[in-house]
Amino acid sequence: MSGTYAVTMGDRGRLVVPAEVRAHAGLDAGVPLILLETPGGLVVMTREQARDHVRGQLAGADLVANLLAERRAAADREDAA
Question: What is the pTM of this model?
Answer without folding.
Answer: 0.59
